[in-house]
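Appendix B, example 12.
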Amino acid sequence: MSETGTVAPSTVEQAMPAFDVLLSGPVFLDIIFTGLPTQPAAGTEVWSTGLGSSPGGIANLAVALSRLQLRTALAAAFGEDVYGDFCWDVLTNQEHVDLSCSRRFYGWHSPLTVSMAVDRDRSMVTHGHPSPVTADELFSTLPSTRACYVHVDLQEERWVAEAKARGALLFADVGWDPSEQWPPSMLRKLDGYDVFLPNSVEAMRYTRQDTPEAAAVKLAERVPVVAVTRGGNGVFAIDASTGATVDAAGLNMAALDPTGAGDVFGAGFTFATLAGWPLSDRVHFANLCAALSVQHFGGSLSAPGWHDIASWWRHLGRRDAEELKDYQFLNDVLPTDPAVMMRRASATIGLRGLS
């Protein structure tokens, strides 16, 4: 990476992997209600003051990575329906995510999630059917990549091991366990991964520890780098290879919708890891990306681009220099190229253009 934080030109471009990050997983159409006074009770109707729609699921991570100027490829199934049309169009034409490994399927409808944000938290209702193909079936030939980001609670597939054998770094997180059993045996799936990025609930439940910090220490016995997110309370991270730990406090942001904040954290941590930054800078950069995302509604389209990061630092960094001393590294990594300073887009209700 260059000192500006952008990908530096290579003199051996022939040897460069095709992508920076390769992803696979389900893409949902997310419909997000914000400004709700309360969650709707049985037999009642609640009006919201905000509404948007955007690609969700693994798309949250794909968009967040792409907005940080990482070459991002996504292998996923899309229905040949209006939901699939919308998500495909946003990902390819607006967010520049490569979908050459993805496929459309007639007769299989795209999964849908409704998210309702209340009091800095959200509840969701999801409908969908199993993907008609596995990721292994989507990859006729596995493209070369610097890293893969994997939800390890999904079905294990051969492409991850193949990418690892080719030298890719493996980043992992997990999802909510609907059985709420949180079997510790699931952690065996982390063998061979380089970075694990769970939230505090997931980390404590799977390790049977009482604090996020104790859970991180336990997880670091299995994965070299662990960062446990604590919502508004920040992040605790540990690098088992050096023994270094980082305890980053939460940033004071007006939270509108936390949907996708964990994915945005993961994207920021992935970018900073591939850039070769120290653990503290990786944690604080990812912490900032996630904090900026909750200021807007929608999981994927709330992810910040470099313009949003630079604007935050320009307005607050110098004014609160002592309070934000752990973010001084931004002075050296913010891009200077206007072409990468994209603004984030707002979640939309899918308005059609005028003919």
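Residues 17-39+48-333 form a domain with the UDP-N-acetylmuramoyl-L-alanine:D-glutamate ligase fold (CATH 3.40.1190.20). Residues 1-13, 351-355 have pLDDT under 50 and may be disordered.
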